[in-house]
Every structure is written in C-alpha cells, then in structure tokens.
Amino acid sequence: MSQLWNFVPTMLALCGVFIALWWLRRSLEADDPNHSPRVIFGPLGLETALIGLVLLWLVPWGLLLLLPLILFFSVLSPAGRQDWKDHKKARITLCLCVVAMIVLGGRVPVQEPVAPESWGEPLLKENPNAPIYPASQQYTWLMLPEEAGFEVEIVQSISMRLPYQYGAWGAPSTALDLASWFGMETDRMRQAIELLDQQTAGPTLDPDEISMININLPDTHTFISTTKGVNEEVEVRVFELRSLLSTSEDGTRVGEVLCVAKASLGGELQLLVIVRPRLHPGLSSDRFAESLVIEWLSSV
User: Fold this and answer.
1) What is the pTM of this model?
2) What is the pLDDT of residue 73?
3) Residues 6+ apart with CB under 8 A from 84
C-alpha cells in the first residue's frame, strides 16, 4: 500500500476545520461581515486550530497533549476567557469537528506488516481478537526448533494506525506506554497464548487467566549487525507472562513477551512481538532476541 495513505488522516483533520466553517456559515450571506472565519471563531481561533494540526506532526503524544494545552492556554488570560464566552458555540463546533475527523482517521488502512523473506509465509494473516479500532494488520509466525526442545517462538509483526499523532518522534514510546497502562495488548495476545499452549508441555494456558507484568529494563535497546546493515536504537518493552491458574497469588511465570516498536511519518506504527516459553534458553542468553529483531529491522 502506498505511503500516501499516511497523509489521509491529516487531510481528514483539515476537512474537520472546513466542515465546522461550512456549518457555522450555512445561514449567512456571502457579503455578511460575520462570514469571515476570524469573526466566526474569534481572534486566533482558526490560526490556533491550523497550528495544532501542524503540531500533530511534531509533538509526542499529539492530540492527547495538545488539546488540553490549547484549551488551557486559551482561557488563561481574561481576554482569552472573554473570547471563549463570545465565540463559545463556534469554537466548540470547531473542536468537535476536528476531533471527530481525527478519530475517523484512525480507520485509514495501514501498510502490510513487515515480513522478512527468511521467515517464510506467515502461519496466520489475521487476528480475530484484535481490537476493531484503530486500523491494523497482523502476521503471525510459529518458529519451532529443528529437534524437540523449548526454543519455541511465536512471532507477530503488526502494522497499526496511531490516530492521535502523525509524527514519528516519540510515537513508539507513547504507543507502548498507552498499551501497557490500559491493558490494550491483552486481547491481541490471545492468539499467541493459544499457540504457546499448543506447543508447550505443562498446565493448560487460559488466555482469560493470563497477566502481563512489565519487567524493569531500559526502554530502548541498540541492535547492531554489519552484515544486515543495522545499527539502530529502538523502543523495547519486556513483559513476564503469568498464569493466574495457580496457587500463588501473583500467578506462575509461563513465559516472556518482547515488544519492539518503530514509527513512520503519518501516524503508523510497526510493532514486533516475540513470545517465548519460560524454559526457552534465549531468555537468559539472548533477552532481546537479537537475530529475529535484526531480521525485522532490516526489512522495515
């Protein structure tokens, strides 16, 4: 899919400004002095909206940070509060239209997930448990050892739309933090947990009785490979998978999850998720699954 799709959310947000302006002008004559956007939205109202759209490409956290800040500073002074009083209806209409179109932009299709040729054809090309919003695509591979052993790896490559931020700066960190805080990764992980349960011996793993505990490790890691031409510091998170079907109050450790994220301009996130069972030797010798991540990064 063309990278031009990544500009569509911005165009939709800009359309939100024009929709608000059209709605507020619909009962005015063209020669009416109140027809001007500066009169309708008040001093700096339209300019602030347009600057805010530009900042969505520059500021980490995007809309989640900008909207509260814009509203706060717009009422900070007595003059600003008076402007809001005089143009309350127009400004609320503008905010609602722009935010609605930004939310709609979260459904814009994303590119296919990164799929290194050396991994072969994905086992699965969809995840019925993935959230319907925002737009995303997912490929899943099952990496099995040549001989019987514990080197089982479930690898997921995901493309995901970030509706609240169009710039790449800070986007991976923001996305991973939001997913962790609000447990948004839980539904998507069901598929990997079911595959892990099928491929490992021991007690049955119930996706509804699994918790993910963040392991206190650095939030970034540098992956280096001269043969693959990779030398890149990327956002990473490592979680401990715990089964709650246990006599222990904190659950029983059954594996680990590594998440690696990289963003592109236009509000799209590429995410690599690697799930390994607790007896996988790489959990102690290769915590960040270097070879798999380097293959993925070289294909991004």
Assistant:
1) 0.90
2) 87
3) 42, 74, 75, 91
